[in-house]
């Protein structure tokens, strides 16, 4: 019996990471837009049963059509279901984001795109929004900027080439968050809406420029 280990090249590893990244972004957007799916994702037993059911159904659609007739289209669909059951993340009863939101007293957490503090490199952030403050935290939950939610005077979204910019003003300060990718506008609009809902007096709105 051969004991030679399977070797995954750097190119293959990067490809797998990109596939998982794209799938993860789409899954995250789906969770945000589907509260029932989010509740299912938080139930470990139900989520595990869903993944097993998808895997078994996919495997059956691959094997049975090929043994009975040349149903290659059905087999491809079954293979897709099987792959999805593998790529689906495990159930998450409480994430690090949930714990941080509870620690800060944030009622809403949304993606904030990229934020560049001063001359430092731009970093992906999440906006933790509470009635008193809004925090832009990086992937390590380090605050890059914090501003009082109640003092927000203007918030608007506009397009800039292939990017979407979320601009927030409070007192004599302002912050700009940049969203990129196929879901850029959706995430920017979601962040804008969340900030507006958290502000006691609705801030000024400016129409987005094409």
Provide an overview of this structure:
The chain is of the alpha+beta class and 210 residues long. It has 2 domains: 10-87, no CATH class; 96-198, Pleckstrin-homology domain (PH domain)/Phosphotyrosine-binding domain (PTB) (PH-domain like, Roll), CATH 2.30.29.30. Helices cover 46% and strands 24% of the residues. The protein has a 4-stranded antiparallel beta sheet. Strand 1 (108-115) and strand 2 form a beta hairpin. Helix 1 crosses helix 2 and helix 3 runs antiparallel to helix 4 (72-87). The radius of gyration is 22 Å and the shape is elongated.
Question: In a nutshell, what does this entry contain?
Answer:
With 210 residues, this protein is an alpha+beta fold.
Question: Portion of residues in helices?
Answer: 40-55%
Our count of domains comes out at 2
Computed over alpha carbons, the radius of gyration is 22 Å
- The 3D shape can be described as elongated
Q: Which residues sit in consecutive blocks of at least 5 with pLDDT less than 50?
A: 1-13
**What is the CATH H-level superfamily of the largest domain?**
Pleckstrin-homology domain (PH domain)/Phosphotyrosine-binding domain (PTB)
Keywords:
210 residues; alpha+beta; PH-domain like; 2 domains; 4-stranded antiparallel sheet; 3-stranded antiparallel sheet; 6 helices; 7 strands; 46% helix; disordered N terminus
Write the layout of secondary structure elements.
Elements: H1 10-33, H2 35-41, H3 44-68, H4 72-87, H5 96-104, E1 108-115, E2 123-129, E3 133-137, E4 143-148, E5 152-160, E6 163-170, E7 173-179, H6 184-198
Antiparallel strand pairs: 1-2, 2-3, 3-4, 5-6, 6-7
